[in-house]
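Dear H.,

Thanks for agreeing to be a second pair of eyes. The structure we're designing against is below in token form, covering all 280 positions.
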């Protein structure tokens, strides 16, 4: 999921499943995958469509306190893009990962020595990183379902800042050194990995800019970039049994606090998934 714009009222369970199937009527393989998703989530599956949504996205709603409880697995499909089936399959593949044994990030223990604002910035990084790692796992399955790599992602988001200006105009005393290195790592990683997943060569220029100007502030950024690329290409995170350790290895390269709380989704009864907490 990439944005927080308001979700319309969704439909649920069997109605959601039928609406999803209607979008995939030309692809039996995708329909079979959607059936597996519905058979796992049942009435906990919700689906909505919107012309106004900024992007298609998925969401897992999990109650964390007083006890952990699974609420819904949701998809919002943006209409009017010309790639509705591809976008829907993209989001279904996200929902399929917990079925295959991949854990979801719940939280981390961040040192009290880090200021609250910086701690919140670290927490905000976990979602985008998890999303990008999911993409690297899912791209092969997307193509195996008969879709083109170029249709895996929607339109690219431009960098949030002019990287050169950010470096040259930021005063040293106002720079957040707690998260700065990690922020530049994530900026490079999101551009580089999106290029792998079919985005235009313009994204490659964004990756180069992030690496060049981030290295002006953090000279070891190039070494971290090489480590992130090797991590992806080695690919051990694609094994669900290695996933937790491998994601934490990636976070270590990026100097982001490791995740200590994970959520597993299991389905001991048909169409009634439950959430279990895994604490490292």
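And this is the sequence the design step returned. I haven't edited it by hand at all.
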């Amino acid at each position: 999921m990439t944005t927080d714009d308001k979700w319309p009222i969704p439909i649920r369970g069997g109605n959601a499943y039928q609406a999803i199937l209607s979008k995939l009527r030309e692809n039996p393989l995708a329909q079979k995958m959607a059936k597996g998703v519905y058979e796992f989530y049942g009435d906990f599956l919700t689906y909505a469509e919107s012309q106004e949504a900024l992007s298609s996205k998925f969401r897992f709603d999990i109650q964390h306190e007083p006890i952990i409880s699974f609420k819904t697995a949701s998809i919002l499909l943006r209409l009017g893009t010309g790639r509705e089936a591809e976008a829907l399959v993209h989001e279904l593949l996200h929902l399929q990962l917990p079925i295959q044994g991949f854990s979801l990030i719940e939280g981390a223990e961040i040192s009290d020595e880090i200021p609250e604002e910086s701690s919140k910035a670290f927490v905000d990084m976990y979602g985008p990183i998890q999303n990008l790692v999911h993409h690297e796992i899912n791209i092969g399955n997307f193509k195996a379902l008969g879709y083109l790599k170029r249709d895996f992602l929607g339109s690219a988001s431009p960098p949030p800042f002019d990287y050169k200006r950010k470096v040259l105009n930021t005063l040293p005393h106002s720079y957040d050194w707690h998260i700065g290195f990690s922020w530049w790592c994530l900026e490079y990683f999101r551009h580089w990995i999106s290029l792998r997943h079919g985005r235009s060569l313009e994204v490659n220029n964004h990756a180069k800019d992030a690496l060049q100007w981030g290295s002006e502030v953090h000279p070891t950024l190039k070494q971290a970039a090489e480590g992130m690329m090797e991590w992806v290409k080695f690919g051990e995170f694609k094994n669900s049994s290695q996933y937790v350790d491998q994601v934490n290895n990636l976070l270590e390269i990026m100097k982001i606090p490791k995740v200590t709380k994970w959520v597993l989704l299991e389905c001991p009864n048909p169409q009634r998934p439950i959430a279990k907490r895994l604490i490292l």
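Two observations from my side: The CA atoms of residues 136 and 196 lie 8 Å apart. The first strand starts at residue 11 and ends at 12.

Warmly,
E.
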